[in-house]
Structure formats: structure tokens, C-alpha cells
Design a protein that fits this description.
Blueprint (H helix, E strand, L loop, with lengths): L1 H16 L28 H5 L14 H6 L7 E4 L6 E5 L6 E5 L2 E5 L1 E3 L2 E4 L2 E7 L9 E9 L6 E10 L4
Antiparallel strand pairs: 1-2, 1-9, 2-3, 3-4, 5-6, 6-7, 7-8, 8-9
InterPro entries: DUF6692
Organism: Frateuria flava
Keywords: Signal
Length: 167
């Protein structure tokens, strides 16, 4: 009888492990079928978005579908994701020369200032490809480096960059 109980518990755990698999909510922390979709984050210049923010707490955030729609989608653009399957945190390239980073619940457009560098008002984002030769499905490992105004340390995040052409 103990073996049957154990098998039942293992089966229940395995069934629950895939509960959020199809959830389109960013972070899978809401019930997509019940909670209304969150509106897109506001689009603000870097100086305005970072005003009054404790720089020690700044981290790139994941964009939602509403955020991506506000930016015109990712067709013919590149994205940086913190994991291979995550929603993007940085959208760049393509027909638009700028990049857009999500920080502090705000979408921040950053003009391109170099080949893989985007900056405005002391906020700088640098993309550093790590394994372009080993790209699978168009994704390759990359570093996203964020330099904040008046902060000597840079923030570095390993993730995955992918450029979409026509899709």
C-alpha cells in the first residue's frame, strides 16, 4: 500500500510540474485565464525613467506581449533574453537603429552609439556575442552589459541573443 501511495504522489508531482507551461504571463506568476493582461509599460527617456531610482536595485526586466506590441513587435529585429525561452529584456536592431531596454517598469529607448552599443543620458547597454559560431536556431550566447549613470560598477547578464528575419 505504501508503494501505491508513493506512486500516486510522484504522479501528482509530475502532473503539476507542467502547470504553467502554456501560460503567456510574464514570469508565469499569474493565472493567464483569470487575470486581465497587464497594459504595456510606458515609454520614457532614460533620464526620466531613472529619476529617483535606487541604482543598486536596477535589473533588466522581462517585456510582456503588450510591451512588444507597443514597440511594433520583433519582426526583423533582434532580442536579448535571459534564458533561451524567456520573454525579451532588450529589443534592438532591424529597420530601427535604436534599442529598447525595460528597467523600472519602463521601456527606455536607447539610440545606437556604436556597433553593439546603445546609450542615452548616462545609461549605456552593450551587447557582447559569446558564441556566434555555435548558434542554434538563430540563438547564440551573449552578455548584456548595463552601465548606469554615476555608478562605477557595470551590471552584466549572460543570456541569449537572436535576430529574427521576416518572422
Amino acid at each position: 500500500m505504501t508503494c501505491l501511495r508513493m506512486l500516486t504522489r510522484v504522479a501528482a508531482c509530475l502532473a503539476l510540474a507542467g502547470c504553467h507551461h502554456g501560460n503567456p504571463s510574464v514570469g508565469n506568476d499569474t493565472e493567464a485565464a483569470l487575470d486581465p493582461p497587464r497594459p504595456a509599460a510606458p515609454l520614457r527617456p532614460a533620464a526620466e525613467a531613472l529619476a529617483g531610482v535606487a541604482m543598486d536595485d536596477v535589473q533588466p526586466q522581462t517585456m510582456s506581449q503588450a510591451d512588444l506590441d507597443r514597440l511594433g513587435g520583433t519582426r526583423d529585429r533582434c532580442v536579448f533574453r535571459l534564458t533561451p525561452a524567456a520573454w525579451p529584456s532588450f529589443v534592438y536592431g532591424g529597420a530601427q537603429a535604436n534599442g529598447v531596454l525595460k528597467l523600472n517598469e519602463t521601456l527606455i529607448p536607447l539610440p545606437r552609439t556604436g556597433n553593439d552599443t546603445f546609450a542615452q543620458s548616462g545609461l549605456q547597454v552593450v551587447l557582447r556575442p559569446l558564441d556566434e559560431g555555435n548558434a542554434s536556431h538563430g540563438q547564440h550566447e551573449a552578455d548584456l552589459i548595463i552601465r548606469l549613470p554615476h555608478v562605477p560598477q557595470e551590471l552584466g547578464f549572460k543570456g541569449f541573443a537572436e535576430c529574427r528575419r521576416g518572422g
